[in-house]
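Page header: ASSEMBLY MODEL / two components / 781 residues total.
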Amino acid sequence: MAKTDLSYVRSDMLAPQPAPMTSRNVSGWIRTNLLATPKDVVLTIVAIAVLVSILPGALNWLFVQASWLGSDRSVCATTVQGGVQPDGWHGACWAFVKDRFIQFLFGRYPLDERWRPILVAVMFIALLTPMLIPKVPRKTLNAVLLFIIFPIVAFFLLHGGFGLERVETALWGGLMVTLILSFVGIAVSFPLGTLLALGRRSQMPVIKTLSVTFIEVVRGVPLITVLFMANVMLPLFLPTGWTIDNFLRALVAVSLFSSAYMAEVIRGGLQAIPKGQAEGADSLGLSYWQKMRLIILPQAIKLVIPGIVNTFIGMFKDTSLVSIIGMFDFLNTIRLNFTDTTWITPVTPVTGLIFAGFIYWIFCFSMSRYSAFMERHLDTGHKR
Amino acid sequence: MTDHAIRVSSQKTEKASLLYDPKVRSIFFQILTAAIVVLAVWSISHNVATNLARANIASGYGFLAGRSGFDIGFALIPYSSDGTYGRAILVGLVNTLLIAFTGVITATIIGFIIGIGRLSKNWLIAKLCTVYVEVFRNIPPLLVIFFWYSGVLAFLPVARESWKLPIGMFLNNRGLFFPKPLWGEGAEAIPVALLIGVIITVFVGRWAKKRQMRTGQQFHTIWTGIALIVGLPVLTFLALGAPLSFDFPNAGRFSLSGGSVIAPEFVALYLALSFYTAAFIAEIIRAGIRGVSKGQSEASFALGLQPSQATRLVVVPQAMRIIIPPLTSQYLNLTKNSSLGVAIGFPELVSTGGTTMNQTGQAVEVISIWLVVYLAISIATSLLMNWFNARMALVER
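Prediction written out in full:
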């Protein structure tokens, strides 16, 4: 064996090189992320110009100039308009939001009975929180409590009965109405949408045709027409002498409308499940409903969770449309206060709408974040 | 052999009870469902007929020919309160289509810019675009409309203190007043010239493509096309001796007279729907471009294509296949959301139809008109986009 000369192999380690400039410090980061090419320099300058032209003014309007305390319009109006602010003043009127906040939550719900919606809200949070945390056990019991027992209790608490004073639905309002509409819409549209999706993929022509017709007609028209239909035509559909509560009409419209959208989302999931799963279930001798409940739907629904949550978000936003048929949901309750002589100023509408937008945004954004979390949590690695 | 064996064994099995025969069960359930539906429809129509008869409302579409008696603030086709209900509903339909058309174009442009921006390597641009998308996706469109209408446009001055804009335009709380073009004699030739320009461009494009396929020589179709489409009408316009004059709006003491006006309701609805839908379109565009694998652009660079060529010839055609189906549903959403104009009094289909419904009590008929019109728009848009999608689809060998 010939002796090999290894003198070209280094015998001592080299000292580590410093990291490249671009990943070492702030100026490196700026150079790669903001000023990489001449085009990027121009874009950065444009973006900074946009920010400089909007942000200071907006922050000034929202916080610095804003009027925070007060009990009537004078704090939000200039001297010419009959207020205390100097001429040319322009800023947000948070005093208005603060003064009317409770009304934004409950609408015209009687003052003495407001503990009832608060109790319902507490129950709802107490039941929903464990439902949303994956680690908490006993999900079935929780779901039964949340989707079957809770609505019944909540109905009697809010509407009255069993010794509680009756509160007509016409008096309900504010965020409460928005949340009730969304909750019922979600609780109804999920099972109904699943049934419609199964119907659309059914082998039976009659059931398939009915499902397809319902889904396509509802998806083809705006929610407003469905609401008008429920508002004007539901009473006509019933036998003479029967009446149907206005609130119930809106509930029916919102639930049916979102069911059609939910059906399409769930159908997407059903289509993505390989045929072998159904055939495997068949070969094990499972009945149709067993097959769907135990094999197909759990996989299909897991696949389309983002779509389902998007439908929920869409429905939450769409509940604002009930204001057009004269109901006082969150948005409409706020708008109602714009014309109130106690608070009528030029800045009240903008402030109120920004506040409404902020609240809607918080709800929708947290829903979408939660869906992203669930997607990661349920991702068991079967995806390609 | 095995085939035979199976046949023999199947003959041996006893016939299962009819109760467990899938075919029989399926037919039974279908008949049951159909019976329930027929019964429900029958009882509903019976109730409707009874209720309408009690309220003394004649059914049928005869009311459409009656005098409407209400004014419409924004009408593209001639209309007055002496017009018929049918005409009023038609005015609403035209306004709906106008909002849908202008909104779709603007939303696509904004959405495209924001969607590309979110993919930018520039951190600031990407974050700004993300903020835009997250803000607009998570608030109700109705709120955006109110925000523009009673939040922003309400701060416009009254007619007396109108803001003067260039070329004789005025802006106040009644809308944007601009000079109304009055076309002189022979002006009909201009659109004809435009049409001829478009047709010639199409033929030039075909010829250029054929030639490139045959000889490899390229032809500047785009510049030729622009020259034809812009140049021909301009030449016609000049040849006719510029038959165009303007009716300028005049600022009186309390109001403006003359000119054309764009109502603030239209502007609020148009801006709100464009901004709202753009957030969704941006997400679709982003997903579409990210859906094209990186290998595709790398391969096109390896073939020696310029970055712009790689984008135009390789990435965009493939991204379009992912983008078009969800884009179609966003266009339809915008069209359906135009019905929110009723909340700020923009006279679109639901608004004029609603007024008609209140005045005549013909709820069933008006709602049926709404359903038919919106379904027709949905189907027409779907067909158009499906056709476009089929043209864009991957041609597999």
